[in-house]
Amino acid sequence: MSFASQGFCPEIVQALEQCGYQKMTPIQQKAIPLARKGHDILANAQTGTGKTAAFALPMLQSMVDKPQQRSRRHVRGLILAPTRELAQQVADNVAQYHQFLPFTSAVAYGGVKMASQARQLEAGVDILVATPGRLQELMEMNMVSLAQVEYLVLDEADRMLDMGFIGDIQRIRDQIKLPHQTMLFSATYPPKMKQLAAELLKKPKMVSVGEENRTAETVAHVFYPVDEDRKIELLSELIGRKNWQQVLVFVNYKEHADAIAEELNNDGLTTGVCHGDRSQGNRRRALKEFKEGKLRVLVATDVAARGLDIQGLPHVVNYDLPFLAEDYVHRIGRTGRAGLQGHAVSLVGREDELTAVQIERLIGQRIRRVEQPGYEARNRDALVDKFNSKAAFRDRKGRTNRASDQSGAERQLRLRQAVKARLKQR
Questions:
Q1: Short-list 107, 60, 103, CA closest to 88
Q2: Do residues 201 and 224 both lie within one domain?
Q3: Same domain, 108 and 256
Q4: Which Gene3D superfamilies is this protein grouped with (predicted)?
């Protein structure tokens, strides 16, 4: 099905051709006709399926059909995103879609000075893409008004709930005075989002592509069992020996990211870092260099798990398995996009075995385990069988991400010790 068949104006069709878009993806085929009719939408789809176009294009076409003069500090269309990286990416896409239309768009997120964002909003914008926290700050300082919002989109809504933005979302919603269309797009559909959908949506149309929490069929999964203190060594070995040229590595702790990047750089693998303690400019620069191939490896915390669109990314590595099994789906969603093949590699320590089983249950498949010669883990088979066979272990909840967790502190200590041991061997 083509975009032209949806009755988009020539300027939008021209922009899509400029972007290289040809056929609509499944989520676009299902969501766009409903959104064009003005329905509220609750959409569930895997990452990398074209959700941005599914909500942005109907919004733009509606603005074309119902032109309005911009008002000072007012917004017509509001798109909320959980992270800076996703907000910037969505804003870039929106700007491409309206490049031949007389519309303006802006992006607002934390980590950068507010003054430049306020200047963009001074004359009013047609579409604003923002993170909830920064939008709240702008609202409190009377730098933006939501009184004229006609379209509200929550992108990666479940992630916003996980990050504790529920209060901000409710306060933002309360500032919207006009009847408006609301669309929620998400990769997963946990119970908390059902509650949020009931609050925000009016008679929504449900849209789903693929089974919930399933990963793309284009991704090959593999677990490498390895003792915790040898993970760094194995990671370097895999990247070097298998000649992986573009690798996104996920960790749970910022300290892990810095130590791993230092070690990989010492091994001659050009590596950058992306986590919350790095400035926004530093993070954007690392992502840019990674996309351009100037960095072979990017080590990131979950701040980079959502929304990153790295064209043709072949390898995602979980150095640490995520605290929640659902985040495995988000992390590996960076590879295997747009029909291309991808590889999801996880280094599984003894403490990770329960999470590994929960991940397999969540995605509905057993993941192949490969023991790398020289890195065989100790005393593993009995533990795996126990987790798979006994409901008391199998059905336990995953770990929680608490800075005070003793297990997290112990893992960081072992990591630092492993790095020091390797450096002494040089």
A1: 107
A2: no
A3: no
A4: P-loop containing nucleotide triphosphate hydrolases
